Amino acid sequence: MAKPLPSHAQVVIIGGGIHGCSVAYHLAREGWKDVILLERKQLTSGTTWHAAGLVGQLQGSHATTAFAKYGIELLESIEAETGQNPGYRRSGSISIATNTERFAELKRKADFAKLFGIEAHHMSTAEISERWPLVNPDGVLGGIHMPSDGSANPIDLTNALVKGARMHGATIREHVKVEEVLVEGGKTRGVRTDQGTIFADIVVNCGGMWARELGQKNNVGVPLHACEHYYLVTEAIPDLPADLPVLRSYCDGTYWKEDAGKLLFGFAHFHAKAWAAKGIPEEFCFDSLPFIEDDVMEVLELAMNRVPLLQETGIRTFFNGPESYSYDGRFTLGPAPDLEGYYVLAGVNSTGIQSGPGAGKALADWIIKGHAPMDLAEMDPARVEEFQTRDPYLQERCPETLVLTYAMHWPNRQRETARNLRRSPFYHPMKARGACFAEVQGWERPAWFATEGMAPEFEYSFGRQNWFDCAQAEQKAAREAVAMIDYSMLGKLMIEGRDAEAFLQRLCTNNMGMRPGRVAYTLMLNPRGGIESDVTVARHGPESFMMMCSISHTRRDLLHLQRNIAEGEDVRLRDVTTAYGVLGLMGPSSRAVLAEVSGIDVSNEAFRFNSLQRFHIGHAPVFAQRLSYSGELGWEIFATPDFAEHVFEVLEAAGQNHGLRLIGGEALNALRIEKGFVHWGHDMSYTESPHQIGMDFVCKPDKPVPFIGRDAYLARKAENKGPFLCAIKLADPEPLLHHNEPVLRDGKVVGYVTAGAYGYSSGAAVGLCLLSPPEGTSGREALAAGAYSVLVEGKAIAADISLTPFHDPQSRRMLG
Question: Number of C-alpha atoms within 13 angstroms, CB side, residue 409?
Fold first, then answer.
């Protein structure tokens, strides 16, 4: 008879796959003994058991690469601790390219590896054939070899984590189904299972492909869906080398690994299908799905061409199993946004074995410390909006993530599914004028505008894409004449009430005690002095403020505000993002255009920078705040949706005599980088302090109400530790910067490009970068010493760095 469940626990973990077991192991190893993991059937019986077990250290981001790197360390040490062999083989990996663009991507991947000290080097076609003699080298241009990659046995690795968790005091129970997470007053209180209730203040959803359904019961969005995923295993192959590296041919959509004298080869499908649209069968346990040849035939033919031995070797296993994929290709890791004590780790897009140990450790550290142990903002459950957690959206979008796994990872690559969901009031007129749209948080936002006779469609490349000249002309208009952009999708949050000012004084680093009609750029910090967000706040009245947020972080900022309303405080929050269409008007001629249509004095004396006024454009009542994200003279003009197109038409007509041009996000990104303006989530996050980003000027530690994180910020500022943000520009006008390129000082890696673009005014690729000062020094000023370069596709390109922006460092154009 099964032992009764305990009535209480410190932490309940739901799900006995690689992730749940990793969280349990790492919590217990840190001394949290009162931890219980509940598995509905048997350990590993969902997805973990049939994983291919590939272990590659280099992933798509800093955080996921850190997870995978730690995973290797654990694989090499856990047997000594637990006595359980995880089945790890360090065979290395080879990724091959059959076209120049793929080769460029692989070279950039090898550059990225240098940021983490991971060995990655170029291999010629002849060297690839020698190391992997079964490969057909036809069309192979070369590849990248990573000696530290390999593979592990998923079940053995999970069992090692389970054994370690139990050794350190955690409890693991199988055949216990969690039916409900108990909630009271916005906090978790435990779980109700088919064998009783366990009360706990912390519950961790590691339910794998069940995580979405479990989360829905408590309105916790887990944006993943199970998709069908195939691999095949051959019959035994005589004399097959046991030390074959894992081989990836992204262009063929296939990977191969040696598997006990056989070859296992899997697919990144060209056409993927969501599975279990009506729910996962209750009896699912170590199950596989029907194998449909037509689903893989296209990729199978490419595989048999790349490894001709497959044409004469029998197939022992035709396998189709469900794998969870997220809507945006990112993990979901961290606390649920609306429910205290509820944590999620799920949706890892077929990287569970290589990421599981590190992701589980990160979440365990988060639970123990009460905050993220590193920058995990890309995985934040609060990034997800309600429509992105619904099954119809996920069933359309998640299979595309599987398709894109081995597709080219182009700069600014756009998703093709679930499009045209959210459109601003200016969508149709801008589309009529040649806008090519990019999708951000469901919004269709102009990325650039096609010229006459040009299709408004992306043609991707790591070099100059088809819109390059369009974006240069758009930048030129903003710098030399006048440009207009759609800002409607920026978040707009109203903060109202008797205590609104005091509340914002506590939340914001800048002084919110400004008079109505004034606007301020400000940061919001966490108690550790890290930057939680950067926003613009306008005071509309004595008890009314509007906060403007980044498109993709609006929900996150709203939740941050909600969490910090003190008991008894008269503060009311409203999301009014869709209540206004917003046009950004910028450039040296923007004042002339606005003067022509507004009937008010827009001189520098009458309409100061960081101020707000109400007036009419045509027949439409509007308000405008004088701000600029381009670094030029500019205004942000707000109109209600009913008048929005009218305002657009009046401004467009007036602008014709001044050289007005519509611009998109690609041009704006280059303009803001040239001006040194930052973007949260790229150039900074909650791990960086204002002094590192050059943001001391918006921090007012002596204002009447101290802001959250003030003392921690001052302490970190006094320490003056890096890395520090600065501007960088390539000396060669031809190469391009995108992001994550390593920056070298005197030939050694000292940081990376956080954001890059080609600047019209600079005549070269420009970027922002986080750099560590020379050893034994501190402060941003120490960065000035040394010769700098940037690795771009394996070549070190000479570069200049600057502690001030390359464009108009004194802001005379913007303030004039």
Answer: 19
Measured distance CA(641)–CA(648) in Å, rounded:
11
Region(s) of the chain under CATH 2.40.30.110: 720-816
Q: How buried is 414 (Cβ within 10 angstroms: 0-12 exposed, 13-18 middle, 19+ buried)?
A: middle
Q: How many CA atoms lie within 13 A of 7 on its CB side?
A: 0
Instruction: Report percent pLDDT > 90 for the chain.
Output: 96
pLDDT in tens, 675-692: 999 999 999 999 999 999
Query: Which one-letter DSSP state was computed for residue 345?
Result: E
Q: Give Cα separations from 816 to 247, 323, 457, 601, 655 (angstroms).
A: 59, 56, 37, 15, 20
CB-based contacts of 300, cutoff 8 Å, min separation 6: 232, 267, 293
Report in angstroms the alpha-carbon separations of 370 from 305, 363, 377: 52, 10, 15
Q: Write the CATH number of the domain with boundaries 11-85+153-225+328-383.
A: 3.50.50.60
Q: Residue 274 and residue 429: Cα distance in Å, rounded?
A: 36
Whole-number Å distance between alpha carbons of 593 and 597: 7
Backbone phi and psi for residue 114, each to the nearest 5 degrees, phi listed first: -65, -25
Q: Phi and psi dihedrals of 530, rounded to 5?
A: -90, 155
Band of the pLDDT at 271, cuts 50, 70, 90?
confident
What predicted TM-score, i.e. pTM, was given to this entire model?
Answer: 0.96
In contact, 504 and 703? CB cutoff 8 Å: no
Radius of gyration of the chain (CA): 27
Q: Kindly report, as residue ranges, where domains of CATH 3.50.50.60 are found in the chain.
A: 11-85+153-225+328-383
DSSP 8-state code for residue 274: B
- How far, in Å, are 50, 231, 286, 319 from residue 291 at the CA level? 14, 10, 15, 6
- Residue 389 phi/psi, 5-degree rounding, is -105, 0
Under the banding of pLDDT at 50, 70 and 90, the label for residue 1 is: low
Asked whether 472 and 583 are in contact (CB, 8 A), the reply is: no
Asked whether 632 and 616 are in contact (CB, 8 A), the reply is: no
Cα–Cα distances in Å, from 741 out to 95, 462, 526, 640, 759? Answer: 20, 13, 29, 42, 17
CATH of domain 491-579: 3.30.70.1400
Structure tokens at 475: 């930048």
pLDDT digits (tens, 9 = 90+) for 420-459: 999 999 999 999 999 999 999 999 999 999 999 999 999 9
DSSP state of 763: T
| CATH 3.30.9.10 applies to domain 93-115+122-148+227-324 | yes
d(CA 647, CA 425): 11
Q: How far is it, in rounded angstroms, from Cα 255 to Cα 265?
A: 5
| Cα angle, residue 23 at apex, residues 21 and 24 outer, rounded to 5° | 65
Torsional sign, CA 280, 284, 288, 289: negative
In the predicted structure, residue 481 carries a pLDDT above the cut 90:
yes
Query: Do β-strands 246-249 and 93-97 pair in parallel, antiparallel, or remain unpaired?
Result: parallel
Site of tokens 């123990």: 368
Contact predicate 487/536, CB 8 Å: no
Q: What is the pLDDT of residue 485?
A: 98
Please give the pLDDT value at position 293.
85
Spatial CA neighbour of 18 closest among 79, 89, 71: 71
- The per-residue pLDDT of the chain, averaged, comes to 96
Distance of CA 300 to the CA centre of its chain: 32
Q: Does residue 289 carry a pLDDT above 70? A: yes
pLDDT in tens, 163-203: 999 999 999 999 999 999 999 999 999 999 999 999 999 99
360 within 8 A of 25, measured Cβ to Cβ: yes
CB 651 within 8 A of CB 583: yes
Tell me which residue has tokens 């959206």: 393
CA distances from 138 to 96, 97, 108, 307, 347 (A): 11, 11, 23, 11, 36
What top-level class would CATH report for the domain 720-816? Answer: mainly beta
